[in-house]
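Translate structure to sequence.
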């Protein structure tokens, strides 16, 4: 946990806390899923905040385990490449995009069945009002956001080889992503009633793809997730304070080392950022394996000291 990037660690903690809260409150007769899960937008229980809250709820231990395992495995890598702000923004966008996709699919189903023409619906041998029926259409889980993370890994490290159970041989990340897309498409059109929002998974990947393509074409927009001017201002104040404190504790003399000025610090940071950008461009073009040992080390050092 100590070596895990900050935002990935926080997302894991929040998801597990939400899962425990769901379980504890259910024992007290409070249905957290009904409150914070994403309802069909024509249902009476729908609220816009559910587009955000639904992705932190899970229906079973296996549901949250596999989602969080994938988040830990792939999210840690992506956050080290992008930084915490950009990573979180991408994660939330993929989750919201997955929710929007699920709403569109549910609306198509709602229209095809002509549910709005009926006052009562027979569901599983139980007669209920139409509003009560559509309120049952509730989506929960971080799968859409996690699938977006999987896509990002495949696009940034397309030739990275992964061992996936039960295959006894390594698979390149780009082919793994293609396989996931094919499986989700096949499952979505099978109408098996397995209770899995397959189209939401694909929606998370679609929104992730569009966002990454946008960043590739507009690098300035992607760069806005770096340190803000306000943070640079406070960093400058902190450096000056540290310099004064250290200077007060030592005698001036010819042996004293010269302090780095703000201009020199900014120039060094700018040069370092240009080197990191060049490494990331190389990854996008040729994959992670194309990096030299020194480039990989520099990227790792940057992730630890953003």
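Result:
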């Amino acid at each position: 946990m100590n070596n895990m990037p900050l935002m990935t660690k926080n997302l894991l903690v929040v998801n597990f806390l939400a899962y425990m809260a769901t379980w504890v409150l259910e024992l007290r007769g409070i249905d957290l899923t009904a409150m914070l899960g994403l309802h069909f937008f024509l249902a009476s229980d729908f609220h816009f905040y559910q587009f955000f809250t639904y992705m932190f709820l899970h229906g079973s231990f296996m549901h949250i385990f596999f989602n969080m395992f994938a988040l830990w495995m792939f999210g840690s890598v992506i956050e080290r490449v992008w930084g915490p702000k950009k990573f979180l923004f991408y994660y939330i966008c993929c989750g919201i995009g997955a929710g929007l996709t699920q709403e569109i699919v549910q609306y198509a189903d709602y229209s095809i069945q002509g549910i709005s023409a009926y006052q009562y619906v027979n569901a599983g041998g139980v007669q209920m009002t139409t509003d009560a029926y559509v309120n049952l259409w509730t989506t929960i889980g971080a799968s859409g956001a996690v699938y977006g993370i999987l896509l990002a890994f495949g696009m940034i490290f397309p030739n990275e080889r992964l061992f996936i159970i039960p295959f006894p041989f390594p698979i390149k990340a780009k082919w793994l992503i293609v396989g996931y897309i094919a499986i989700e498409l096949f499952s979505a059109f099978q109408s098996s009633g397995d209770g899995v929002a397959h189209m939401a998974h694909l929606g998370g990947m679609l929104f992730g793809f569009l966002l990454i393509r946008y960043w590739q074409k507009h690098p300035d927009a992607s760069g806005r997730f770096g340190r803000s001017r306000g943070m640079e201002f406070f960093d400058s104040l902190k450096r000056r304070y540290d310099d004064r404190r250290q200077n007060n504790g030592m005698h001036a003399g010819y042996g004293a080392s010269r302090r780095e000025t703000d201009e020199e610090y900014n120039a060094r940071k700018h040069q370092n950022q240009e080197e990191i950008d060049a490494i990331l461009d190389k990854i996008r073009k040729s994959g992670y394996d194309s990096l030299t040992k020194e480039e990989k080390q520099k990227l790792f050092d940057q992730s630890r000291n953003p």
